[in-house]
Amino acid sequence: MSLSEHLGKHAHDVNFGGNWTVSNMKEVLEDVTWEQATQEVYAFNTIATLVFHIGYFVKVAVKVLEGGPLEGNDKLSFDHPPIHSEADWQQLLDTTWSDAERFSTLVKQLPDSRLTEDFADPKYGSYFRNLQGIVEHTHYHLGQIVIFKKLIQQGLVS
Fold it and tell me: What is the CATH number of domain 3-153?
């Protein structure tokens, strides 16, 4: 298996399962309601905001992997559309899963020789750094989501 295939699998596994941490986005979020997803936990982000934030950077990377420009802004990465219903929440999740599948597929197809090249601009570092960074970023926020979910479901926040 090539390094790109390993990276793509790692990206897939953090979203859909099979990784070393035995924790993934889809399973963690499968029983989260839209009310829980939008409930504030103290002064932190909501689960929905974190899901959107993770997906924002995946979407930016997909565009680059498809040959487009790097167009993203950290300030916009927390600005998700309003969620007022289960349908709104499911739409965010469906988009997240679709984008995650596309991302992992594109990473797997990337020639290993590209991994050391600059990711759109030298200031962002290599493809490897950015692609692995997205996986790490997802794991990081997944940990937050797990904690928020437990606090909410155990009634420890009001």
Answer: 1.20.120.450
- Please, where are the H alpha helices in 2-126? 3-16, 25-29, 34-37, 47-65, 86-109
Model pTM above 0.85: yes
Count of residues in the chain: 158
DSSP 82-114: P--SHHHHHHHHHHHHHHHHHHHHHHHHS-GGG
Tokens for 122?
């030298």
The three-class DSSP label of residue 118 is strand
Dist. CA 141–CA 143, nearest whole Å: 5
The answer to whether 57 touches 137, Cβ cutoff 8 Å, is: yes
- pLDDT tens for 85-100 read 999 999 999 999 999 9
Convert the pLDDT of each residue in 44-101 to its tens digit: 999 999 999 999 999 999 999 999 999 999 999 999 999 999 999 999 999 999 999 9
H and E: helices and strands count for the chain = 6, 0
